Amino acid sequence: MATDMSIFMQFLRSILLPLPGVTEGMHFEYPAFYVNKKIFTNVKLAQELLAVYTTEREKWMARDSHTFFITNHYINYKYMVVRLETVSPDDLKTLLITAYRARATKKLLKEYDVMMSAG
Fold it and tell me: CB within 10 Å: which end of the chain, N or C, has fewer?
């Protein structure tokens, strides 16, 4: 995926902000996206990395340990780090939507399902 960070942030916003209940904010000094006041992804701009909530990190890391990995910081959390220069847009979108669905309320998931069926 292109690593021009302004293009990348536009890509993230185009996927995430239309989702029911998603807001953009900061997590410490990093841009982040929240649903139901729960963070589900944040961007490490200078390092061109994305931390994303997932319960399937072992699957992703086994598939491509260069692109998908964890640092010591994330060992005890359900997050994985994604290298932006090597992740495919389709894989990234899958991860982001899955992270959103894992953190959203049932009400927001119903809104999401209606939105997806409409369009």
Answer: C
